[in-house]
Amino acid sequence: MALQFDIENKEKKIMNMICKQMDYTSFPLLKPLWVKLVENNGSNSTYFSHLFKTFTFEVHESLLQQKIASGCEVIFFVLLSKEGGEPGGFCAVNCNRELGEGEIEMLYVDERLRGSGYGKLLMSKALAYFDENGISNLKLCVAFGNDKAIGFYQKFGFYPFTIDMLRK
């Protein structure tokens, strides 16, 4: 089911976006946004921006395939422009129904669409998906230094539990 939302972007043009649930096979469509997500994480990283430059789409795609092979479901909620179907953002989630565990794997909204409620829409769709499937043990990871994301996720009840540290 697609939800349609009309917004006014920072350039004062109307952006018509729909949110669609898609399966893993849609991931290649999201490569340009994934690249921007990694660049954004790298620019926000306090200590390890250089590591983000080593991340590749193909490696991440392989990691998602491994999760699927181990019994996880991988689902994408994707913002698509009503005209042309260009992706404007996405939220990737995975869950293991047997264990009742879920993860918000990635969330990214194009800079031109930020501040218009699309991040909230994507999070709401992800959380509703978990609720509908009886998944209550949820987690997500945020790159250290991405304080805006931490504040955003706290609005949905996510708080820091541990901090992974790497030796530089």
Overview of this protein structure:
A hairpin with a 4-residue loop joins strand 4 and strand 5. It is built from five helices and six strands. The longest helix has 15 residues, at 118-132. The chain has helices at 31-44, 49-52, 57-69, 118-132, 147-154, and strands at 3-8, 14-23, 73-81, 87-96, 101-109, 137-140. The chain is 32% helix and 29% strand. A six-stranded mixed sheet has the order 1-2-3-4-5-6, with helices on both faces. By secondary structure, it is of the alpha+beta class. The protein has one domain: 3-Layer(aba) Sandwich (Aminopeptidase), CATH 3.40.630.
Identify the notable features of this structure and list them briefly.
single chain, 168 residues, alpha+beta, Aminopeptidase, 5 helices, disordered N terminus, Acyl_CoA_acyltransferase, transferase
Task: Write the SSE topology.
Layout: E1 3-8, E2 14-23, H1 31-44, H2 49-52, H3 57-69, E3 73-81, E4 87-96, E5 101-109, H4 118-132, E6 137-140, H5 147-154
Parallel strand pairs: 5-6
Antiparallel strand pairs: 1-2, 2-3, 3-4, 4-5
